[in-house]
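Dear colleagues,

For the upcoming journal club I promised to circulate an example of a predicted protein-ligand complex. I picked one with iron/sulfur cluster because it came up in last month's discussion. The inputs are reproduced below in full, followed by the predicted structure.
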Amino acid sequence: MASLANRISTCRRCDLCASRARTVPGEGPVPCLIMLIGEGPGRKEDESGRPFVGRAGAILSGLLRDIGLSREEVFITSVVKCRPPGNRAPKREEIASCIPYLDQQIALLSPLILVPMGRIAVSAIFGRYGIPFPSFKEVRGRRYPVRDREGGPEMVILPVYHPAVITHNPPARSALEEDFRRLAECLDGLQGKDR
Ligand code: SF4
């Protein structure tokens, strides 16, 4: 994982390399049970090189704490590893350039649960596994079993809201909390199961 982060740090595969201060490869234990995947780094993440350190990060830490997990127990990353200027959504071609890094991280981590957070991350992950994506609303909170490779261990994709949703839509907090309760239930269910 460290050598992958090193390669990401010098990556110039897409235009986002021109405006970044630092790459944000992600952090957490290797291997891990839960891999949380956001859209892309924001300003504070770009400055620090660490994922989810801004306001959304504080919300995420609180959601994890509520279900008995700490940040240190999960791997946190994003679909693109460099900040899109002005926090715009990453473009399709930027995601396509960067997704091989996420693929390599998934292979290294071999998580039980992949948790794409928000529409952009869900769409990218569903595309990666060939799962139809009618709309975020229709897939949110449902479990999608997948295998990273033929004969490989089964993982579950569990789409959830992005933690930043409550910064512009405070009533969404209860839906977000419900998503993380589902994550805890999913983890409890899978941990009793042979891989
Ligand atoms: S976003 Fe990804 S593909 Fe683009 S320059 Fe950064 S690390 Fe490379």
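Two points we might discuss: The chain has one domain: 2-189. The longest strand covers residues 34-38.

See you all on Thursday,
B. R.
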